[in-house]
Design brief:
3-stranded antiparallel beta sheet, about 20% helix, alpha+beta, 23 strands
């Protein structure tokens, strides 16, 4: 903030222009100095510094006149610097001033330099640039869209991963740093904003310590998949018992069942309210009813399946099964009930994998990604 703005805040009315202690001229070459930022070696930047002018006015004028004069000069004089960037110690900068006639009319002061005058200043005081590791202290974090992103690092620098999905602990990925702001390069931005230059714009990063939400069946460890299978088969056994208890005397029975496939759905809506993922274990069931013996498909879905850094699996309780029920009161019913021929006689589940896809996958494509996405009977 300019020092002159600290001199006086007027409650109202005109500023007093009288009261200066002398009629000396204002020498801009002496009183406007340059301020340097950045680093030596083509990374320096120059800008105008009015602090010395404001100090001189404060020492030679009343507070009211000093403030008014400072505003008149700083607002009315256009100061151009050439060059003002890409500087090294020892470089020369040309300072040129332009202003309209009469900018100090009504004051007891006048400018020493005419409009269009210029002078040269030698750059000094820029420090040697320090090299830094832009990737020091970064880590990866799982996002609501099912991908990983860098946390930590430098503000306003974009960190891009060579792979942001399906990452496992122990993987080595490449992370690239870039600046996407006002057209400046990454190096220019770092010098300008932090006074440093990057050692490199890429790094090889070894992944560790991640809690992983699998986005495909391949990302679920065998031990974890076996755990899900045990839970799913317990649910199927419950369904089998329900069928037997309710309609066993009518000829309904589950003869056998086998694990068929796994589908993983990953939320891509960007909301943390939805599950991070859904894992469907699909079983092929052979069952009988009064119409005969049939093969069909049954699924058990687990939400928020996560594998921690030690390989341990966790998931939400209460897996989700196809909607339907076997009961004395309603027979076989539910949204996922399909008939096998005789009206009102059938099973809860899906007659084909295409039916599973039509119910669980097709309506949600775009909001969710599915792996695999090509179920075939």
């Amino acid at each position: 903030m300019k020092k002159c703005m600290k001199l006086l805040i007027c409650a109202g009315g005109a500023l007093l222009l009288a009261g200066c202690s002398s009629k000396e001229k204002i020498d801009l070459e002496e009183l406007i100095t340059l301020e340097y930022t950045g680093a030596d070696g083509g990374y320096g930047y120059a800008s105008c510094d009015y602090e010395q002018l404001e100090d001189w006015l404060a020492d030679n004028c009343s507070e009211e006149a000093a403030l008014s004069l400072a505003i008149a000069v700083e607002d009315g004089v256009d100061v151009s610097l050439s060059p003002d960037e890409g500087l090294s110690n020892g470089d020369e900068i040309t300072v040129t001033i332009l202003y309209d006639d009469g900018i100090l009319d009504g004051y007891d002061y006048q400018l020493t330099q005419d409009s269009g005058d210029s002078w040269k200043v030698t750059v000094e005081g820029l420090e040697e640039p320090k090299k830094v590791d832009l990737f020091e202290g970064i880590s990866l974090e799982y996002g609501s869209d099912g991908s990983y992103a860098v946390v930590g690092g430098y503000d306003n620098i974009t960190y891009t991963l060579s792979k942001d999905r399906g990452i496992r602990n122990g993987d080595t990925i490449t992370i690239t740093a870039s600046y996407e702001g006002d057209g400046a390069s990454l190096e220019e931005f770092c010098i300008r904003s932090y006074g440093v230059i990057p050692e490199s714009d890429t790094c090889e990063y070894t992944v560790e310590g991640l809690d992983i939400y699998p986005a495909s069946p391949e990302e679920i460890p065998d031990e974890g998949l076996n755990e899900l299978k045990q839970e799913a088969e317990s649910c199927i056994e419950d369904m089998k018992q329900q069928m037997t208890d309710s309609l066993g005397t009518d000829g309904y029975s589950v003869n056998n069942y086998d694990y068929d496939s796994c589908v993983v759905a990953t939320n891509t809506t960007g909301t943390t309210a939805a599950p991070r993922n859904e894992v469907y274990l699909i079983y092929k069931i052979n069952a009988s009813n009064p119409d005969g013996t049939f093969d069909y498909y049954y699924s058990v879905m687990f939400s928020n399946v996560m594998v921690d850094s030690n390989g341990k699996l966790s998931y939400d309780p209460n897996p989700w099964m196809p909607d339907g029920s076997y009961s004395y009161w309603s027979g076989v019913s539910g949204e996922n009930y399909f008939c096998t021929g005789t009206e009102g006689v059938g099973f809860i589940g899906f007659e084909s994998l295409q039916d599973f896809r039509d119910y669980y996958i097709t309506p949600y494509e775009g909001e969710w990604t599915f792996s695999p996405d090509n179920l075939i009977d």
